[in-house]
Amino acid sequence: MMIEQMMKDKSTQITEQLLEDICGDNYKYWQELTMSFTQQEIEIEWRFYKDGGWLAKVVRKKKTIFWGWVSHDGHMSASFNFANKPELRDAVDNMGLSSEIMDTIEVTPLGKTFGLQVGITNEGRLADLQKLMDFRKKV
Q1: Coil, strand, or helix at residue 91?
Q2: What domains are defined for the chain?
Q3: How many angstroms separate the first and last alpha carbons of the chain?
Q4: pLDDT string in tens for the chain (139-residue length)
Q5: Would you say 58 and 65 are in contact if contact means Cβ atoms under 8 Å apart?
Q6: In this structure, are residues 70 and 22 in contact, taking their beta carbons and an 8 Å threshold?
Q7: Partner of 76 at 20 to 30 A CA spacing, among 4, 53, 89, 104?
Q8: How do residues 75-96 score in pLDDT, each as one tens digit?
Q9: Cβ-contact 70, 3 below 8 angstroms
Q10: 3-state DSSP call for residue 129?
């Protein structure tokens, strides 16, 4: 079964072994990221949505930190969403995130939120992810 079909099938059981099988060498970055979750009081809740398939809701004390998913090419990705306020946008703009990540920023059609996406594909992305997670926990 193709990755995209598998992640859109409600009967798929999301396990670490399945993620490792799907992501291959990229799994190590997801694993490294999630190893820090316990000490940060962060949990992963895998949820199935009819319109999007399986998504990982990454939460801390009921607050959504980011949404994660397995991309069609077999790596994990994360999406962060923030209220579209100038002070929050300025803070994100000044975090020193890679230009690849900054290029993903999109404002929703109604302009109430802005989001950015991070492919979890290398060590540098882990540092950017941690910056975003730390910021998201505060706002």
Answers
A1: helix
A2: 3-138 (3.90.1150.20)
A3: 40
A4: 688 888 999 999 999 999 999 999 999 999 999 998 988 999 999 999 999 899 999 999 999 999 999 987 888 999 999 999 999 999 999 999 999 999 999 888 778 999 999 999 998 899 999 999 999 999 9
A5: yes
A6: yes
A7: 89
A8: 899 999 999 999 999 999 999 9
A9: yes
A10: helix
Token pair listed for 138: 């505060």
Length of the chain equals 139
Tokens of residue 49, six digits: 């949505």
Order across the sheet with 42-49: list the strands: 42-49, 53-60, 63-70, 76-83, 113-120, 106-107
CB 94 within 8 A of CB 61: no
Tokens linked to 41? 């009081």
Task: Single out the residue of 127, 138, 139, 134 nearest to residue 33, CA to CA.
Answer: 127
CA Rg value for the chain: 15
**What is the CB neighbour count within 10 angstroms for residue 97?**
21
pLDDT tens, 104-122? 998 887 789 999 999 999 9
Query: What single-letter amino acid sits at 128?
Result: D
